[in-house]
Amino acid sequence: MRIILFLLIFISALSSAQDNKTTQMDPYIQNKGKASPAVRPEDKVKIIHADEFRKDTKYEGNQYMVGHVQIEHQGSVLYADEVILYNDQSLVKAIGNAKLQNADGSVITAYEMEYNGVTQKGVAKKDVVLTDPKQTIKTDILYYDRLANQAYFNTGGTISDGQNVMYTKSATYFLNTKMIDFVGNVKIDNPDYIIEGPNIKQNQNTKVAEFFGPTTITNRANPKNRIYTERGTYKMDTKEAFLNKNSRIFYNDKILTGDDMYFNNITGFGTATGNVTLDDPLERRYIKGGYGEVFQKKDSAMMTKGPYAVKIMEKDSIYFAAEKILSYQKPDPTDITVKKSFLRAYRKGRIFKSNAQGRADSIAFNETDGIMHMYTHPILWSGEKQVTGDKVEAYFNTKTENIDSLKVIGNAFAISKVDSLNLKDEFNQVKGKFMTVYYENNDIKEARVVGNAQSIVYVDDVDQETKQPQRIGITLSTCGIIGALFEQKGLQIISCSIAANSDTYPMSKIEPEKRKFSDFNWNTKDRIRKWQDILVDSPNYEEIKYSADNELFNQAQEAIDKERAKEEAKKPKRVRK
Asked: How far apart are the C-alpha atoms of 503 and 500, rounded to whole Å?
């Protein structure tokens, strides 16, 4: 009875006292200069147990309890070695092995705690640990707002949830939504990856993290594979990243950028939309477009929506464009430890190099070996020379970065302007089933044509008196094999073998229609003359109009016609009776 009577007197004294000092209490839990409101019964803490009650000068005259103290407030229970009560404001300070058991199942332990029953704010200090079913928070000072149901620290701490350990300067934990707002040198440590950034929000229910500011997600197994963004979200369970600002995906020594991006760290599949660039520094090549996809495990990528690729070379880069561009790597069949790189342009493929420009329905380029295949209606220009066929293969010297040779397979046809400085309708032509074209000093120098080989060649000679070039005529040749040498203003047939037949006609003796093959296809409208021309289906240049030089032939025809007329005039005329 004496103990019960003492408790009643003690609690009554706490309720009626108005001048108890609270200078030792943390400002966070106090009323910050406002008049202390009347303490309602429900705001008061309930004393469940204490070994001893004391009142002396130790705590500025405030009464305190020691030994296995246990008090309760609105469903939350506080345990400590020693508790001071400032009951006029329903203030509590617990010292030594403090533990707060909350009604929602969360538990806070610390060396000391302070709590305001009116504002329902508390602070825990020294070796603070907050645990709930979702995670454990460890810090030096933890502020707790029971009304807002949130906890906050700004002295540095860690948060672990069984899979991840989060390190941060400050964090706010919203217990209702299980959302954590991290600020200041945030680091999330996972067995598979590390996330670092200045401001990250993470929902412990959905396991979704939101990034605000420069943030990286680094793959632990291969740190070179990482994600960078300044605004985005990350699904930590499925390892999916959704990136929305200044983002980059680093994978297999490549870099993917775009306005909006997605990447799955499990499957290695990623997409990018808007101002997309795939940079491959090792291959010295990049691809740009409006939409891209990457497949990390297959080491391949696809680009659409106006894509183009640039193979960077020290002296002369190559540009590619098409409706779709693919890039990929695969092991060398002869040595699986070596990977070869490939580039493919599908539908309306176009290429530009200073000494070679072309288009075809599709283009396949073996970047490692320097071999390019052009399929379906290929056409290749070099200077004032044009090559077409069913298929074209170009062979690059990987050291000099120049084209060494071409192979034209099926309906091979090479055309060269006789004199590029004039607009005369004069073209040297050679055609056959197969053709090999050789380059010298970045220009077509020689061609070898096999199978039904034919040529139309303008022949000039030097006038001995004037020392000026003089047109002799046109040579028509048909052979099994033709060897042709391209010169600055002409084409010289250097060999014609196997069923060879060759005739030279003076300009006055050869009809205009025999000066071109029936499938002559000189194309100036679609020709790519600068690298920007590859960005459109066709530059659609105005067709160049060439003037036919038929003066000698017309004069000869007039002379023939006059002679025929004279002969006709000499013949006796029949008179109808």
From this structure: 10
Secondary structure percentages of the chain, helix, strand, coil, to 5: 10, 55, 35
**Is 376 within 8 Å of 361 (Cβ atoms)?**
yes
- Residue 483: beta bridge partners? 448, 495
393 with 403: CB under 8 angstroms? no
pLDDT for the residue numbered 215: 95
Distance CA 92, CA 44 (A): 10
Which pair of structure tokens corresponds to residue 414?
Answer: 């090479």
DSSP assignments along 430-469, one per residue: EEEEEEEEEEETTEEEEEEEEEEEEEEEEEEEE-TTT-SE
Q: What's the token pair of residue 127? A: 């070796």
pLDDT digits (tens, 9 = 90+) for 304-337: 999 999 998 877 889 999 999 999 988 888 887 7
| Mean pLDDT to the nearest integer, 40-52 | 77
* CA R_g for the chain: 44
**For the whole prediction, is pTM greater than 0.85?**
no
Contacts by residues 300-304 (CB-CB < 8 Å, ≥ 24 positions apart):
300/326, 300/327, 300/328, 300/329, 301/254, 301/256, 301/326, 301/327, 301/328, 302/326, 303/276, 303/278
The phi, psi pair for 290, rounded to 5°, reads -95, -20
Per-residue pLDDT tens digits for 531-573: 999 999 889 888 888 877 765 556 656 666 666 666 666 667 6
Q: How far apart are CA 118 and CA 89, in angstroms?
A: 7
Residue 93 in contact with residue 71, Cβ under 8 Å? no
Q: What is the pLDDT of residue 10?
A: 36
Strand partners, 211: 200, 232
Q: How far apart are CA 53 and CA 351, in angstroms?
A: 91
Q: How far is CA 238 from CA 129, 164, 208, 247, 272, in A?
A: 29, 14, 10, 20, 19
What mean pLDDT value characterizes the chain? Answer: 84
**Helices (H) and strands (E) in the chain — how many of each?**
2, 38
pLDDT digits (tens, 9 = 90+) for 134-149: 789 999 999 988 888 8
Looking up tokens 């300009």, which residue turns up? 507
